[in-house]
Each structure stands twice: as C-alpha cells, then as structure tokens.
Amino acid sequence: MEQYKSGDRLVEAGTEFLSQDRQADSIYTVLSGWAIRYQWLSDGSRQILDFALPGSILGFEPEAMDLNRHSAEALTKLRLCILPRSKLIQLLAEFPEMGIKLASIGRSEQITLAQHLSNVGRRRARARITNLMMELLVRTRATSSNVIGDTIPFPLSQEVIGDALGLTSVHVNRMMRELREDGIAVVRSGKLTILDEERLMEEAELDHRHLATPMEVN
After folding, report:
1. Does 2.40.30.20 match the CATH number of domain 122-210?
2. For 57-66, what is each residue's pLDDT tens digit?
3. Which one of 30, 120, 132, 206 is most buried, by most CB atoms within 10 A?
4. 64 or 99, greater pLDDT
C-alpha cells in the first residue's frame, strides 16, 4: 500500500491540519499522537465532535462531498499518513478488504457520535466527564501497548473538555475536583489516573462495544 500514500507528515501541537469548508483532497490516518475533530459555529465558538487517537481516520468524506465538513487540530505532536483522495479508488480495487474495514470504522464512528450527542444533551455535567474519561481509557488501552496500570495520557485542557461536553471551564474544574476528592479519578500533568475504575464505569454508563476499531498503524 506504500505506493498509494503521498508520505507521512509531522504536525506540531496546536496546528489545524484539516479545515472546515476547504477542499477535501486528502485522507489522514493518525500514526501517533492525539487530535481533535470539530466544527466551527456561526458565533465563532467550536463544538468538538471527537478525539482522534492512533489508528483514527480523518478527512474521509463521501465522494459527492468536495469540502471538509469539519476541522481537525493536533492536541499533541502528530504523525500522519497521507493518502491522496484521488488514489482511494485504486487502493480499494487492489485491496478490497480495506473497503470493508473503512465501512466498519464509519459505522462505529456514527454510533460513537450518537453516544456523544446523548452524553451532551441528556447527562449531567459529572456524568458527561466520567463518560469521556471512560471512553478515552478504553480507546487508549486498545491503541497503545505502552499503557501501564491505570494511568493514560490525557492531553486535554479544561477548555477542550468544555468544548467537547458543552460545559464552561469553571464547571469542568469543579467536576474534576469532585472526582479527585471522591477518589474516582485525578488529572495531573497531562495524565489521567483512574483511582476507582468500577465506580468510574458505573457513573460513565458507557457502551463501549461499538467504539471505532482503529486502523492498524506502524
């Protein structure tokens, strides 16, 4: 498959590498690092739709769509594999199993986004945060062989968490303090440590059976 990609790209943290309403000419696979996928709203605010971890695919728009429906920004330093959209049909013709994999990922992402909508629209603030923590814990364990014990990377600022969950930074700070004081989870220095996973799972009410299966990365 090497002949189809245009190369790898390193992206520094804080850099937007996919822009909403711009030409959708490339498909990106995250090889390492974390990113956010989001939409800009008319008032200048943003709604974070999802978090991209190793194996996530970004920029995979339907053939009829010429423009990206969302933006993406690196949360940490990223390494991306770039596939020109013009070569996708050739790739799938030679490797039809990739089409099945992409369809499976698309279905899982659709279900995950529906869960995010329910989380933001129907859960209380604390439950929104525990749900997000549990989701990222499950996904990180699935995509990284370097996770040791109950601590995972968590490069999310309170502003980022708020933009994902529809909360103010002040509210996020208060809920994080509650979780720490209740002995459930603590975030410190860019890492999330789970103190009581059973209680976190109970509060999160996360159905992780349909979380997107990542692409294999090297």
Report:
1. no
2. 898 876 656 7
3. 30
4. 99
